[in-house]
Amino acid sequence: MQMLQAILIGLPMTILVTVLSLALGTVAALPLLAGLRSGNRLLWLLSRGIIDLLRGVPPVVWLFILYYGVSVGALRLTALQAGVIGLGLVSAAYLAEIFRGAISSVHSGQWEASSALGFTRTTLWRRVVGPQAWRTAIPSYTTYSIGLLKDSSIASTIGVAEIVYMSNQYARQSGEGILIFFIAAGVYIALSLPMGVLSRHLDTKMRKVVAR
Q1: Phi, psi angles (nearest 5°) of residue 78
Q2: Predicted pLDDT at 152
Q3: What does the angle CA 176 – CA 178 – CA 180 come to, to the nearest 5 degrees?
Q4: CA–CA gap between residue 148 and residue 189 (Å, rounded)
Q5: Residues 86, 62: contact at Cβ < 8 Å?
Q6: Residues whose CB is less than 8 angstroms from the CB of residue 72 and which lie 6 or more positions away in sequence, other chains included
Q7: Distance from C-alpha of 59 to C-alpha of 144, rounded to nearest angstrom
Q8: CA 39, chain centre distance (Å)
Q9: For the chain (length 212 residues), average pLDDT per consecutive 10?
Q10: Which of 20, 23, 18 is CA-nearest to residue 152?
Q11: Please, what sign has the CA dihedral across residues 71, 74, 78, 81?
Q12: pLDDT at residue 70, rounded to an integer
């Protein structure tokens, strides 16, 4: 029971890091996506370079750079801020590619038909491209979200008191060994399962919307 209590103390921080990083990554992915779809070669190269850089460096390295290397005067990022920003930026790179692939999957005929019908750009994205692209993106987006939930454990390396950090602290203090980490693994699985169920529910719902 004490082991589980120690793990659950870190649960809110794990969820917080995951949600904030995913939200930041989703928002930051949009300008990168716009750059990838831009006809401007310079913008395309800039977006491609940023994405490759963010994906090419291990997330833990970004966290170390932000936590130990970024400071403005007396201002220094907290462990939570560095963790969220680091994981959020890496997420932005991967999500931009997920969104790009989803939009590219929309048949060219859909764009041509919308143009022929005189749809505005807003209507095109809201009624035609958006629902189809989002339905395609849902499985990959959810899979990445589950991966991000697990990757939030990386934040323990800079002192964020999430599940792995609290498990490690308990193991050191109690000498209980590896059992607590098996329990922590079970908690991660318990958190991941509802996300998979939600993904299937959203996919079914979006199929109905697109089919209308």
Answers
A1: -75, 170
A2: 95
A3: 75
A4: 13
A5: yes
A6: none
A7: 14
A8: 27
A9: 86 96 96 91 95 95 91 78 96 96 79 69 71 84 93 94 92 83 92 83 66 54
A10: 18
A11: negative
A12: 79
Phi, psi of 76 (to 5 degrees): -140, 140
Hunting for tokens 């934040």 — which residue is that?
Answer: 155
- Residue 137: how many other CB atoms lie within 10 Å: 20
Nearest-Å Rg of the Cα atoms of the chain is 20
d(CA 183, CA 175): 15
Confidence (pLDDT) at 199: 75
Helices (H), the chain: 2-36, 41-56, 59-64, 79-104, 108-116, 121-123, 130-151, 163-174, 179-211
Residues 87 and 148: beta-carbon distance below 8 Å:
yes
Contact 21, 88 (CB under 8 A): yes
Rounded to whole angstroms, the Cα distance separating 61 from 183 reads: 27
Tokens of 165: 């950090």
Place of tokens 């201002």: 75
What is the per-residue pLDDT for 93? 97
Look at residue 135 in the predicted model and tell me its pLDDT. 82
What is the value of pTM for the model shown? 0.86
Q: Sign of the C-alpha dihedral, residues 52, 61, 162, 174?
A: positive
Amino acid at 143: T
Q: What are phi and psi of 152, to 5 degrees?
A: -60, -20
The residues with which 50 forms a beta bridge, in sequence order, are none
The answer to whether residues 149 and 137 touch, using CB atoms and an 8 Å cutoff, is: no
